[in-house]
Design brief:
Elements lengths: L3 H14 L9 E2 L2 E2 L4 E2 L2 E2 H18 L2 H18 L10 E2 L9 E3 H18 L2 H18 L8 E3 L4 E2 L14 H15 L2 H17 L10 H17 L7 H21 L3 E3 H16 L7 H12 L17 E3 L2 E2 L2 E2 L1 H18 L12
Antiparallel strand pairs: 1-4, 2-3, 2-12, 4-5, 6-7, 7-8, 9-10, 10-11
Helix pairs in contact: 1-12, 2-3, 2-4, 2-12, 3-4, 4-5, 4-6, 6-7, 6-8, 8-9, 8-10, 9-10, 10-11, 10-12, 11-12
Length: about 350
């Protein structure tokens, strides 16, 4: 396995040189190594990539990362944002125009957090203002008295009927997106944002017990571990509350058990990285003493998906996952971002230098 600093550098080159970021600044959902093509540009994945590039800039001091983060942020604020509707659409096609008539609550939260990350790094008010507008749209368009609607059909912004898959139904995973409201409260003082996060927290705590396993199929359970980790991440602002800390600790154990049970058949690199990050944050905050053996296992699992190739579209990125030991053909920006951050934090912990900041969580 590469040393952590070499791994970070290789993953950074992938973000900069692979073509996963289009010339307009938008970032593709993934690269299909079997088809030799990028998927469509995703506003959510662009938001995640901004946070990753800011993290890489902070970690290395390389200004190229911040330059690319700014390019991605300007794509979101100047191209992707639908000014007439006041919302971010789901995806963009190769021509740079919207390819789908939907907007996702979760995507908007990730975008808002990415814009806040680049605003903190640059001080450019454009990005803060866009994050605030996104947070207000999340409040105005997705929230009802019963639930946070996960998907809206555009242009009418009508809620899409719920479906069984986790991303098309309300659930505790929405708390990570709602964390954008907490972040916005911190930078604006607007109490509407804080109250909205509080409502989302109450619903998430009430619905969390039924989220796992959620399906008899073990591969579907592995897929559900990914959004369940979002729930744990969304608890970070309130881990000083005993109830939340208790649920967080139990959640780490639940995730760990399912991961080890299912991994020989199907494992996702992002799940390994998310669980490792959550462990490290919990230990750093004094909430959950680190299980070092489990953390080392998760670090090894995540690192195993780091890709080596002569092809710059692949080299340095992280694969999405594997089934029965066979890698799946997706080189994934989110998998890469989560794994790089998790392994960097794991290295810091081992060197007694961990500084885990919630605002820096990708």
């Amino acid at each position: 396995m590469l040393r952590t600093d070499s791994l970070i550098a290789a993953a950074g080159r992938w973000f900069l040189q692979s073509g996963i970021q289009e010339p307009n600044g938008g970032v593709a959902r993934y690269y299909r190594s079997d088809l030799l093509k990028n998927a469509a540009v995703s506003t959510e994945i662009t938001g995640y990539t901004i946070s990753a590039l800011v993290f890489l800039h902070e970690r290395t001091g390389n200004s190229a990362y911040l330059d690319r983060a700014v390019r991605a942020a300007r794509f979101l604020t100047r191209t992707a944002w639908d000014r007439a509707l006041g919302i971010f659409p789901f995806e963009y096609g190769a021509t740079g125009v919207p390819s789908g008539g939907f907007a996702y609550f979760f995507d908007c939260g990730i975008i808002a957090r990415g814009l806040l990350a680049v605003w903190r790094a640059t001080g450019e008010a454009e990005f803060r203002d866009a994050a605030v507008a996104t947070g207000r749209a999340m409040l105005a368009d997705f929230c009802s008295s019963e639930a946070i609607h996960p998907i809206l059909a555009l242009p009418n912004k009508s809620p899409v009927p719920y479906q069984p898959r986790w991303s098309a139904s309300p659930g505790c995973y929405q708390l990570k997106a709602a964390m954008a409201w907490f972040d916005l409260f911190e930078c604006t003082g607007e109490t509407d944002f804080l109250r909205a996060y509080g409502r989302a927290l109450d619903v998430a705590l009430a619905t969390e017990p039924s989220f796992l396993p959620g399906d008899p199929n073990c591969e579907t359970v592995m897929d559900r571990l990914h959004p369940y980790a979002y729930f744990l991440e969304g608890l970070l602002p309130v881990l000083d509350r005993e109830e939340c800390a208790r649920v967080f600790r139990a959640g780490l154990d639940r995730m760990s058990g399912y991961l080890r049970e299912i991994a020989p058949q199907f494992v996702r690199s992002d799940v390994c990285a998310q669980l490792l990050r959550a462990r490290l944050f919990g230990d750093h905050l004094g909430i959950a003493k680190l299980d070092s053996e489990a953390a080392a296992y998760e670090a090894g699992q995540a690192a195993a998906f780091h890709l080596h190739s002569e092809d710059p579209r692949i080299a340095g990125g992280f694969g999405f996952g594997s089934k029965i030991g066979q890698p799946l053909p997706y080189v994934n920006p989110v998998s890469t971002a989560f794994a790089v951050q998790a392994l960097a934090l794991w290295s810091d912990h081992q060197n007694h230098a961990l500084q885990a900041r919630r605002q820096a969580l990708i």
